[in-house]
Amino acid sequence: MKLLTLSIIAALLSNSVFAEEKVNKDEVKLPIPSRTEFAEQTKRDLGKYGAVNAIQELPVSRLYFVEAQSGSYIISSDGRFAIEGTIKDVWHRKTLKTVDDVRDTLRMPLSEMKFDFQKDLASLVLGNPDIPRQGVIFGDPTAKHTQEFVAKINANKEKYHFVFVMMPLIGGEDAVKRSMSILCAPDRDLAIEDLANNTSKSFLDTNEGCPDQNLMFTVYMQEIFKITNLPHVVRKDGLVSKGAPIELDKWLESL
Length: 255
Description:
Structural class: alpha+beta
């Protein structure tokens, strides 16, 4: 268990960015290719470059899409790099040609993601599983703002349904151990109470033999969802709240 904990911490700390607590027009819809068709087309397009010989990260912090009279291109925030050519969003299965195309990519519906939040991630179901899922919450079980947000949902569990994903990036080793204890608890309802109230009533004497609950995958979620604050909440349609929404009901209903 100790080796597992240390390996998880090493993976989490390998990131260069850490999460901190804070708080109509008519259009013709073109047919969207299937994910398989788009992936195959992308492979064919990339294949013209031949085998990959090397990869190097560019010194770029931000990129901007520019739509000009003669075409479109990508430019770095400092103006140093300009990238021309076809730009594809593999997740949304579309080629980006206009600024409106780019704006459409700012939200990624959870249903379009390539993994199952409950099965593939270190997670718990909060609230009422009999109603449609409203979103996903990424949080550190040792962080006060995360605990308060979970407590708020748990106090009105009949009206909410979220998947809570463990992201122990604030509390270090203690957060990793607490995540494992909550995930390995046989009584899930009591484990959620512990998550909300910072208690340990559901904890086992030992977590030996308990699977790692995919906690290592957390490190990839931070990059995929651009997480800089915890809790980080993603609505089912992809709308993001960096921190717990102050008025949760209004946020869930907002456009």
